[in-house]
Automatic annotation (TrEMBL):
Domain ABC transporter intervals: 4-236
GO molecular function annotation: ATP binding
SUPFAM superfamilies: P-loop containing nucleoside triphosphate hydrolases
Protein name (Swiss-Prot/TrEMBL): ABC transporter ATP-binding protein
Record keywords: ATP-binding, Nucleotide-binding, Transport
PANTHER family: LINEARMYCIN RESISTANCE ATP-BINDING PROTEIN LNRL
SMART domains named among the record's database cross-references: AAA
Stored InterPro entries: AAA+_ATPase (IPR003593), ABC_transporter-like_ATP-bd (IPR003439), DrrA1/2-like_C (IPR025302), P-loop_NTPase (IPR027417)
Amino acid sequence: MDALSIRKLTKIYADKKSALNEFDLSVKQGEIFSLLGSNGAGKTTLINILTTFLKPTLGTVQILGKDLESNMQFIRSNIACVAQHVSTDDNLTLAENMRFQGGLYGLGKAKMKERTNQLVEIFNLSDYIDKKVETLSGGIKRRLDIAMSMMSYPKILFLDEPTVGMDVQSRQSMWRMLSKIKSELGVTIFLTTHYLEEADMLSDTICFIKDGKNIIQNTPANLKKFTRKNMIQITMTDSQDTERMKELLLQKDYVTEVSVDDRSLNIQVEHSQQHFFDLNTYVLSTRIGFEGIEITEPTLDEIFLDIIGERGN
Ligand SMILES: Nc1ncnc2c1ncn2[C@@H]1O[C@H](COP(=O)(O)OP(=O)(O)OP(=O)(O)O)[C@@H](O)[C@H]1O
Ligand SMILES: [Mg+2]
Protein backbone atom coordinates (compact mmCIF):
# COMPACT_ATOMS: atom_id res chain seq x y z
CA MET A 1 0.00 0.00 0.00
CA ASP A 2 1.27 3.43 -0.93
CA ALA A 3 1.22 6.36 1.48
CA LEU A 4 -0.37 8.50 -1.24
CA SER A 5 -2.00 7.60 -4.49
CA ILE A 6 -3.34 10.43 -6.63
CA ARG A 7 -5.16 10.04 -9.96
CA LYS A 8 -6.17 12.80 -12.35
CA LEU A 9 -6.42 15.34 -9.57
CA THR A 10 -7.77 18.64 -10.83
CA LYS A 11 -8.33 21.87 -8.96
CA ILE A 12 -10.03 24.80 -10.59
CA TYR A 13 -10.37 27.84 -8.34
CA ALA A 14 -13.52 29.98 -8.30
CA ASP A 15 -11.99 32.44 -10.78
CA LYS A 16 -11.63 29.53 -13.29
CA LYS A 17 -7.92 29.43 -12.63
CA SER A 18 -6.75 25.82 -12.96
CA ALA A 19 -4.03 25.07 -10.40
CA LEU A 20 -3.88 21.28 -10.79
CA ASN A 21 -4.48 19.63 -14.13
CA GLU A 22 -5.07 15.84 -14.07
CA PHE A 23 -2.19 15.45 -11.65
CA ASP A 24 -1.02 11.85 -11.01
CA LEU A 25 1.32 10.82 -8.23
CA SER A 26 2.24 7.97 -5.93
CA VAL A 27 4.34 8.19 -2.78
CA LYS A 28 5.67 5.09 -1.02
CA GLN A 29 5.43 4.61 2.71
CA GLY A 30 8.54 5.55 4.67
CA GLU A 31 10.14 7.67 1.98
CA ILE A 32 11.14 11.31 1.85
CA PHE A 33 9.35 12.78 -1.13
CA SER A 34 10.10 16.24 -2.54
CA LEU A 35 7.77 18.21 -4.77
CA LEU A 36 9.71 20.76 -6.78
CA GLY A 37 8.38 23.52 -8.94
CA SER A 38 8.45 27.23 -9.68
CA ASN A 39 6.18 29.84 -8.11
CA GLY A 40 2.56 29.15 -8.94
CA ALA A 41 3.21 25.56 -10.12
CA GLY A 42 0.53 24.19 -7.77
CA LYS A 43 2.56 22.87 -4.80
CA THR A 44 0.62 24.55 -1.99
CA THR A 45 -2.69 23.76 -3.68
CA LEU A 46 -1.73 20.08 -3.71
CA ILE A 47 -0.62 20.08 -0.04
CA ASN A 48 -3.83 21.86 0.95
CA ILE A 49 -5.92 19.20 -0.77
CA LEU A 50 -3.91 16.33 0.71
CA THR A 51 -4.21 17.78 4.21
CA THR A 52 -8.00 18.26 3.77
CA PHE A 53 -7.95 22.09 3.85
CA LEU A 54 -9.17 22.35 0.29
CA LYS A 55 -11.64 20.34 -1.80
CA PRO A 56 -10.51 19.03 -5.19
CA THR A 57 -12.61 19.73 -8.29
CA LEU A 58 -12.08 16.29 -9.86
CA GLY A 59 -9.92 13.21 -9.44
CA THR A 60 -9.21 10.70 -6.69
CA VAL A 61 -6.85 10.76 -3.73
CA GLN A 62 -6.08 7.81 -1.50
CA ILE A 63 -4.09 8.33 1.65
CA LEU A 64 -2.83 5.22 3.49
CA GLY A 65 -5.17 3.19 1.32
CA LYS A 66 -8.32 5.18 2.15
CA ASP A 67 -10.33 7.51 -0.04
CA LEU A 68 -9.78 11.11 1.02
CA GLU A 69 -13.36 12.19 0.49
CA SER A 70 -15.02 9.59 2.68
CA ASN A 71 -12.33 9.22 5.38
CA MET A 72 -11.47 12.78 6.41
CA GLN A 73 -11.40 11.95 10.14
CA PHE A 74 -9.11 8.95 9.74
CA ILE A 75 -6.81 10.90 7.49
CA ARG A 76 -6.65 13.95 9.75
CA SER A 77 -5.65 11.78 12.70
CA ASN A 78 -2.87 10.09 10.74
CA ILE A 79 -1.15 13.08 9.18
CA ALA A 80 0.49 16.27 10.39
CA CYS A 81 1.18 19.41 8.45
CA VAL A 82 3.70 22.17 9.03
CA ALA A 83 2.70 25.30 7.18
CA GLN A 84 5.07 28.06 6.24
CA HIS A 85 4.31 30.26 9.23
CA VAL A 86 5.45 29.11 12.67
CA SER A 87 2.59 28.17 14.97
CA THR A 88 4.25 27.98 18.39
CA ASP A 89 3.02 29.95 21.41
CA ASP A 90 5.59 32.61 22.30
CA ASN A 91 4.49 32.93 25.92
CA LEU A 92 5.09 29.29 26.79
CA THR A 93 8.38 27.46 27.23
CA LEU A 94 9.46 24.92 24.68
CA ALA A 95 8.47 22.00 26.97
CA GLU A 96 5.08 23.60 27.65
CA ASN A 97 4.46 23.98 23.93
CA MET A 98 5.15 20.30 23.37
CA ARG A 99 2.94 19.27 26.31
CA PHE A 100 0.15 21.49 25.03
CA GLN A 101 0.36 19.86 21.61
CA GLY A 102 0.45 16.34 23.11
CA GLY A 103 -2.61 17.28 25.18
CA LEU A 104 -4.51 18.23 22.06
CA TYR A 105 -4.02 14.69 20.81
CA GLY A 106 -4.96 13.15 24.16
CA LEU A 107 -1.56 11.59 24.88
CA GLY A 108 -1.29 9.99 28.33
CA LYS A 109 1.50 10.96 30.77
CA ALA A 110 3.86 8.14 29.84
CA LYS A 111 3.50 8.59 26.07
CA MET A 112 3.82 12.35 26.45
CA LYS A 113 7.13 11.96 28.29
CA GLU A 114 8.51 9.33 25.94
CA ARG A 115 7.58 11.31 22.86
CA THR A 116 8.89 14.62 24.19
CA ASN A 117 12.24 13.07 25.09
CA GLN A 118 12.51 11.39 21.72
CA LEU A 119 11.75 14.58 19.79
CA VAL A 120 13.93 16.82 21.95
CA GLU A 121 16.79 14.45 21.16
CA ILE A 122 16.11 14.25 17.41
CA PHE A 123 15.66 18.00 17.05
CA ASN A 124 18.58 18.86 19.34
CA LEU A 125 16.42 21.02 21.58
CA SER A 126 17.64 20.05 25.06
CA ASP A 127 19.43 23.37 25.64
CA TYR A 128 16.20 25.29 25.15
CA ILE A 129 13.65 23.09 26.87
CA ASP A 130 12.78 25.54 29.68
CA LYS A 131 13.23 28.72 27.67
CA LYS A 132 10.29 30.85 26.70
CA VAL A 133 9.75 30.54 22.98
CA GLU A 134 9.80 34.31 22.45
CA THR A 135 13.50 34.30 23.39
CA LEU A 136 14.43 31.71 20.74
CA SER A 137 15.76 32.34 17.23
CA GLY A 138 13.65 31.75 14.11
CA GLY A 139 15.56 28.58 13.23
CA ILE A 140 15.00 27.01 16.68
CA LYS A 141 11.31 27.98 16.58
CA ARG A 142 11.01 26.23 13.26
CA ARG A 143 12.59 23.08 14.73
CA LEU A 144 10.18 23.23 17.65
CA ASP A 145 7.28 23.70 15.25
CA ILE A 146 8.14 20.51 13.39
CA ALA A 147 8.81 18.62 16.65
CA MET A 148 5.37 19.69 17.89
CA SER A 149 3.69 18.41 14.76
CA MET A 150 5.30 15.01 15.46
CA MET A 151 3.75 14.75 18.95
CA SER A 152 0.63 13.13 17.47
CA TYR A 153 2.57 10.16 16.06
CA PRO A 154 1.54 10.97 12.45
CA LYS A 155 2.23 8.42 9.70
CA ILE A 156 2.73 11.15 7.10
CA LEU A 157 4.28 14.55 7.71
CA PHE A 158 3.62 17.33 5.20
CA LEU A 159 6.02 20.27 5.11
CA ASP A 160 5.49 23.30 2.88
CA GLU A 161 8.95 24.78 2.24
CA PRO A 162 10.46 23.75 5.59
CA THR A 163 13.79 25.52 5.20
CA VAL A 164 12.81 28.72 3.42
CA GLY A 165 14.80 31.69 4.69
CA MET A 166 17.24 29.57 6.71
CA ASP A 167 21.02 29.99 6.54
CA VAL A 168 23.07 27.14 5.11
CA GLN A 169 24.00 25.69 8.49
CA SER A 170 20.44 25.65 9.84
CA ARG A 171 19.23 24.16 6.59
CA GLN A 172 21.75 21.34 6.79
CA SER A 173 20.85 20.56 10.39
CA MET A 174 17.17 20.51 9.40
CA TRP A 175 18.01 17.94 6.71
CA ARG A 176 19.69 15.73 9.33
CA MET A 177 16.65 16.01 11.57
CA LEU A 178 14.21 15.11 8.82
CA SER A 179 16.35 12.11 7.87
CA LYS A 180 16.27 11.02 11.52
CA ILE A 181 12.49 11.31 11.68
CA LYS A 182 12.34 9.05 8.67
CA SER A 183 14.82 6.44 9.90
CA GLU A 184 13.98 6.41 13.62
CA LEU A 185 10.24 6.99 13.54
CA GLY A 186 9.44 5.51 10.11
CA VAL A 187 7.42 8.53 9.04
CA THR A 188 6.68 9.29 5.39
CA ILE A 189 7.77 12.86 4.65
CA PHE A 190 6.22 14.91 1.87
CA LEU A 191 7.82 18.30 1.38
CA THR A 192 7.79 21.11 -1.12
CA THR A 193 10.87 23.11 -1.90
CA HIS A 194 12.42 25.51 -4.37
CA TYR A 195 15.89 24.24 -3.53
CA LEU A 196 17.12 21.54 -5.85
CA GLU A 197 20.12 20.86 -3.66
CA GLU A 198 17.76 20.18 -0.77
CA ALA A 199 15.69 17.72 -2.77
CA ASP A 200 18.86 16.02 -3.98
CA MET A 201 20.39 15.61 -0.51
CA LEU A 202 17.23 14.57 1.28
CA SER A 203 14.83 12.72 -0.90
CA ASP A 204 14.26 9.18 -2.03
CA THR A 205 11.97 10.45 -4.77
CA ILE A 206 11.56 13.80 -6.50
CA CYS A 207 8.63 15.05 -8.55
CA PHE A 208 8.77 18.12 -10.77
CA ILE A 209 5.45 19.94 -11.06
CA LYS A 210 4.70 22.56 -13.71
CA ASP A 211 1.37 24.24 -14.46
CA GLY A 212 -0.38 21.72 -12.22
CA LYS A 213 1.01 18.70 -14.09
CA ASN A 214 3.42 16.00 -12.98
CA ILE A 215 6.33 16.50 -15.39
CA ILE A 216 8.51 13.70 -14.08
CA GLN A 217 8.91 11.60 -10.95
CA ASN A 218 11.97 9.52 -10.11
CA THR A 219 14.92 9.04 -7.75
CA PRO A 220 17.57 11.80 -7.76
CA ALA A 221 20.08 9.29 -9.18
CA ASN A 222 17.80 8.27 -12.05
CA LEU A 223 16.92 11.85 -12.85
CA LYS A 224 20.59 12.56 -13.24
CA LYS A 225 20.88 9.73 -15.75
CA PHE A 226 18.15 11.23 -17.91
CA THR A 227 20.03 14.27 -18.94
CA ARG A 228 23.46 15.46 -19.90
CA LYS A 229 24.76 12.05 -18.95
CA ASN A 230 28.06 10.66 -20.05
CA MET A 231 30.25 13.61 -19.21
CA ILE A 232 33.92 13.21 -18.38
CA GLN A 233 35.93 16.09 -16.99
CA ILE A 234 39.67 16.54 -17.33
CA THR A 235 41.54 19.19 -15.36
CA MET A 236 44.73 20.28 -17.07
CA THR A 237 47.86 21.37 -15.21
CA ASP A 238 48.29 24.37 -17.45
CA SER A 239 45.40 26.31 -19.02
CA GLN A 240 47.52 26.89 -22.13
CA ASP A 241 47.23 23.20 -22.99
CA THR A 242 43.42 23.07 -23.05
CA GLU A 243 42.90 23.95 -26.72
CA ARG A 244 45.51 21.45 -27.90
CA MET A 245 43.96 18.74 -25.75
CA LYS A 246 40.51 19.62 -27.02
CA GLU A 247 41.60 19.09 -30.61
CA LEU A 248 43.16 15.74 -29.80
CA LEU A 249 40.07 14.57 -27.92
CA LEU A 250 37.77 15.49 -30.79
CA GLN A 251 39.66 13.01 -32.98
CA LYS A 252 38.21 10.16 -30.92
CA ASP A 253 35.06 8.90 -32.58
CA TYR A 254 33.17 8.43 -29.30
CA VAL A 255 33.79 12.03 -28.21
CA THR A 256 30.82 14.12 -29.35
CA GLU A 257 31.52 17.51 -27.79
CA VAL A 258 34.21 19.28 -25.75
CA SER A 259 33.79 22.54 -23.91
CA VAL A 260 36.54 24.45 -22.13
CA ASP A 261 36.20 26.20 -18.79
CA ASP A 262 39.50 27.65 -17.56
CA ARG A 263 41.71 24.57 -16.94
CA SER A 264 38.83 22.13 -17.24
CA LEU A 265 37.62 20.27 -20.31
CA ASN A 266 34.08 18.95 -20.20
CA ILE A 267 33.81 16.06 -22.59
CA GLN A 268 30.58 14.57 -23.83
CA VAL A 269 31.06 10.92 -24.76
CA GLU A 270 28.74 8.15 -25.90
CA HIS A 271 29.12 6.04 -22.72
CA SER A 272 31.06 7.51 -19.84
CA GLN A 273 31.72 4.20 -18.04
CA GLN A 274 32.66 2.37 -21.22
CA HIS A 275 35.01 5.00 -22.64
CA PHE A 276 36.55 6.23 -19.41
CA PHE A 277 39.44 3.77 -19.40
CA ASP A 278 40.33 4.34 -23.04
CA LEU A 279 40.15 8.10 -22.65
CA ASN A 280 42.34 7.94 -19.56
CA THR A 281 44.99 5.88 -21.40
CA TYR A 282 44.81 8.17 -24.40
CA VAL A 283 45.29 11.33 -22.35
CA LEU A 284 48.29 9.78 -20.61
CA SER A 285 49.79 8.85 -23.98
CA THR A 286 49.70 12.46 -25.16
CA ARG A 287 52.18 13.34 -22.38
CA ILE A 288 50.42 16.65 -21.86
CA GLY A 289 50.23 17.40 -18.14
CA PHE A 290 46.85 16.97 -16.43
CA GLU A 291 45.80 16.86 -12.79
CA GLY A 292 42.69 14.77 -12.86
CA ILE A 293 40.11 12.94 -14.92
CA GLU A 294 36.67 11.95 -13.65
CA ILE A 295 33.16 11.04 -14.68
CA THR A 296 30.90 13.94 -13.72
CA GLU A 297 27.23 13.92 -12.87
CA PRO A 298 24.91 16.77 -13.78
CA THR A 299 23.42 18.79 -10.94
CA LEU A 300 19.69 18.72 -10.37
CA ASP A 301 19.58 22.37 -11.45
CA GLU A 302 20.75 21.31 -14.90
CA ILE A 303 18.23 18.48 -14.93
CA PHE A 304 15.39 20.79 -13.93
CA LEU A 305 16.18 23.25 -16.68
CA ASP A 306 16.58 20.43 -19.20
CA ILE A 307 13.30 18.78 -18.30
CA ILE A 308 11.31 21.98 -18.01
CA GLY A 309 12.72 23.06 -21.36
CA GLU A 310 12.01 19.77 -23.11
CA ARG A 311 8.73 18.60 -21.66
CA GLY A 312 7.28 21.59 -19.96
CA ASN A 313 6.50 23.69 -22.99
N1 LIG B 1 -7.24 30.82 -3.47
C1 LIG B 1 -6.90 30.91 -4.75
N2 LIG B 1 -7.77 31.42 -5.66
C2 LIG B 1 -7.45 31.51 -6.98
N3 LIG B 1 -6.27 31.11 -7.49
C3 LIG B 1 -5.36 30.59 -6.64
C4 LIG B 1 -5.62 30.47 -5.23
N4 LIG B 1 -4.53 29.91 -4.63
C5 LIG B 1 -3.63 29.70 -5.62
N5 LIG B 1 -4.11 30.12 -6.82
C6 LIG B 1 -3.43 30.02 -8.13
O1 LIG B 1 -3.18 28.65 -8.39
C7 LIG B 1 -1.87 28.47 -8.96
C8 LIG B 1 -1.06 27.55 -8.08
O2 LIG B 1 -0.76 28.21 -6.86
P1 LIG B 1 0.00 27.53 -5.64
O3 LIG B 1 -0.05 28.45 -4.49
O4 LIG B 1 -0.54 26.16 -5.45
O5 LIG B 1 1.48 27.43 -6.24
P2 LIG B 1 2.87 27.08 -5.51
O6 LIG B 1 3.53 26.06 -6.38
O7 LIG B 1 2.65 26.74 -4.09
O8 LIG B 1 3.68 28.44 -5.64
P3 LIG B 1 4.80 29.09 -4.65
O9 LIG B 1 6.09 28.41 -4.99
O10 LIG B 1 4.80 30.51 -5.06
O11 LIG B 1 4.34 28.87 -3.23
C9 LIG B 1 -1.29 29.87 -9.09
O12 LIG B 1 -1.50 30.31 -10.40
C10 LIG B 1 -2.08 30.69 -8.11
O13 LIG B 1 -2.19 32.03 -8.56
MG1 LIG C 1 3.33 27.54 -2.26
